[in-house]
Write a structure and sequence with these properties.
With about 250 residues, this protein is α/β, with parallel strands linked by helices. It is built from nine helices and nine strands.
Amino acid sequence: MKTQDETPLQNTIAVFIDFENLYYSSVNNYGEEPDLMIIRKLCEKKGGIASIQAFGDWVRFNEQINNLQTSGIQPVFTPLSRTEKSSADTFICVHAMKLFMQNQNINTLILVSGDRDFIPLLNELRSLGKNTYLMGVTGSISRDLVNVADGIIEYRPEKIKHQESKSLQTPQKKVSDQIQDRVLALLKKENRRINVATIGIMIKKEHPTFNHKEFGFEKLSHFLDGFPQIKIEYDEDKLVAYASLIK
């Protein structure tokens, strides 16, 4: 696997962002939305960007469109399936292969995602002699995907952005109790398991300065797992965490 310092200067890059994957992994791990300008700057360190696109359901993520455009990232709409599953992986694979086949001068892919469904895409591009890099949050990228890429670029926000709020004056114990009550109420109302990232968004809206790391937890899922009535489960790749009530 190549290190970031081994990248040739003549790289011409195409960047494909699986926005839902990036968004939820950032919220899960850092408690905040991804900083798209940091994403772009990290990509620019690899060479000249010929194309940078973010694929997602922009009905669901409508508030992010302005941030994308301000960062010079083109949003590409990918509708949800009938089961409300993201179709971004399919769209990215089709668009990426078409772009690389039609533009021989583009020699490097940066895929901003941790989804193992992209393994065939990376294998195919590498067979064509293209460089393939992954960008994502540490711990949120499939190990199988890492094994077929040329390198990894870690995304990490420069700082946790704090907002002025009355909750700054609230003791941690009280905040923790308030969050526990709110999450329990949500789980009881929905009566199903809920993506931890969705819970994180709710918490940030009600407690803008909340940061699970200030409570001694590396991830939001670990913080929630400390509540006696809440159970945390992970998908098969341990990339997505879900919370549910212990019955």
